[in-house]
Amino acid sequence: MSLDAFITETTIEGDDDGPLAGRTVAVKDNISTEGVRTTCGSAMLEEYVPPYDATVVERLKAAGASVVGKTNMDEFGMGTTTETSAFGPTKNPVDESRVPGGSSGGSAAAVAAGEADFALGSDTGGSIRCPAAFCGVVGIKPTYGLVSRYGLVAYANSLEQIGPLAPTVEGAAEVLEVIAGPDECDATTREEGADAAYADAADGDVEGLTVGVPTELIEGADERVVETFEDALAGLEAQGAETHEVSLPSVERAVQAYYVIAMSEASSNLARFDGVRYGPKTETEGNWNEAFAQVREAGFGDEVKRRVLLGTYALSAGYHDKYYAKAQDARAWLKRDFDEALSEADVLASPTMPVLPFELGESLDDPLQMYLADANTVPVNLANLPAISVPAGEADGLPVGLQLIGGAFDERTLVRAASAVEA
Amino acid sequence: MSETPVDPDEVRHVADLARIDLDEDEVDRFTVQFADILSYFDALDDVPEVEAEADLVNVMREDEVREGLTQEEALRNAPESEDGYFKGPSVS
């Protein structure tokens, strides 16, 4: 594969019948597949073969879908470009000199290039929506608790959700319909939204729909992105939607809050990678702690080390109140702001990414600049809300995504509105 | 500038807590990057206190014996095992 969308190509046959029979799915390589290695894009798990399937994989197989491969990703889901994989970067099929976005870049690239009918990604701070926007496909980040995370290799449990990527809104909604619903193996799943018919909602009927546009998510975005976004919004208005400006002052602190919380959870989650139960064998001498530190130095890439160390710092004595506790306050503030904005609008709309796809290598040396690119997507994860990225058009020949954010478990409204953007 | 300047010793200390060996190049690089990133995080100082809704509930399932991984499956990914156990470095 010239795009390096897959880390492992495979064939896992689905059942003979079911709503997805005869269709192919690419699965992000942090979602467990029984008997097929699941690397998380990390040298630490290069040879790891899970003994069980993630719940979402079981559900896709039972619905008739066949898995065609495990897709490339930023190591452990930490990145915005799919360049931090230990297996090398993925290229954007629209323009191979550019990144596909991250961290589910392999999944988005596989779908955009027609190498799978649809794909699964995971979204901790925009990791489905960003690559969907950069590759010109549709991606849904479900409400927290709608889709089981059992079998997803955890990075930041309170933020992440598995969701679909597909060429069309209806296609993504079909997959969501199959994977949504409670799971006794994941106590954070909920009953709400379990039996909803998401694909049916892709009818493009937005007559009377109210769309709030948060001014803070437009300011600072690339002019070409804003222009394409506004044209798409005008298209929605022409179909009967009403738009108005809303203000979400708390989003100005979302990126800081997101990274403090995500890094803190990462430092805790990734403590399990000690090279004893799984992981690389290293010729080390010394006691447990020394051997542990050596295997983690060898197995983790730069971005993973950076986040684990900063998370350890943010949780350490003396800094907990300054960073972690304030980040939790910011999270509560965001939830309140979103509740108010969504009490006056059915959905909120913004550009998915404030920038066009980066050139390969462009953002690697300046992690802070890369974190800032997540400004429009991370507030949604902090508020546990659903969002969809749908292609809004092109600027300079590159895809621009429009993000719609809805109330909790109101994916049907998002699917309806997004299908009108496609029209 | 951050109120909590980061120096190389602090990076080494945190790396020790996180059980990650760093080489000297990494210590130097992370020291510079952490100063930038932590200085950016200082903006959280002006976040107002907001009462979070306490709508969390414990979700428990029945404590029933059920089939789990076999010993062979549990050990399959281990780089080293002995007599049905994981083999690790000495703890002392």
Largest sheet of chain B: 2 strands, antiparallel
Helix fraction of chain B, binned, reads 25-40%
Measure the end-to-end span of chain A. Answer: 32 Å
Most residues in contact: chain pair: A-B, 62 and 50 residues
Main sheet: strands, sense, barrel of chain A = 11 strands, mixed
Low-confidence stretches of chain A: none
Mean pLDDT metric of chain B:
89
Sequence-ordered SSE layout with sheet pairings:
The complex is a heterodimer of chains A (423) and B (92).
Chain A: E1 6-12, E2 24-28, H1 55-62, E3 66-71, H2 105-112, E4 118-123, H3 129-135, E5 138-141, E6 161-166, H4 169-179, E7 210-214, H5 223-238, E8 242-246, H6 254-269, H7 288-299, H8 302-315, H9 321-343, E9 347-351, H10 367-372, H11 378-382, E10 387-395, E11 398-406, H12 411-422
Helix pairs in contact in A: 2-3, 6-8, 6-9
Chain B: H1 8-17, H2 24-41, H3 71-75, E1 81-82, E2 85-86
Antiparallel strand pairs in B: 1-2
Helix pairs in contact in B: 1-2
Commentary on this structure:
The complex is a heterodimer of chains A (about 425) and B (about 90). The longest helix of chain A has 23 residues, at about 320-345. In chain A, about 35% of the residues lie in helices and about 15% in strands. Chain A starts with 5 loop residues before the first strand and ends with a helix. By secondary structure, chain A is an alpha/beta fold. In chain A, strand 10 and strand 11 (about 400-405) form a beta hairpin. Chain A has an 11-stranded mixed β-sheet, with helices on both faces. With about 90 residues, chain B is mainly alpha-helical. Helices cover about 35% and strands about 5% of the residues of chain B. Chain B contains 3 helices and 2 strands. Chain B has helices at about 10-15, 25-40, 70-75, and strands at about 80, 85. Chain B has a two-stranded antiparallel sheet with strand order 1-2. In chain B, helix 1 (about 10-15) crosses helix 2. Chains A and B meet through helix 6, helix 7, helix 8, helix 9 and helix 10 of A and helix 1 and helix 2 of B.
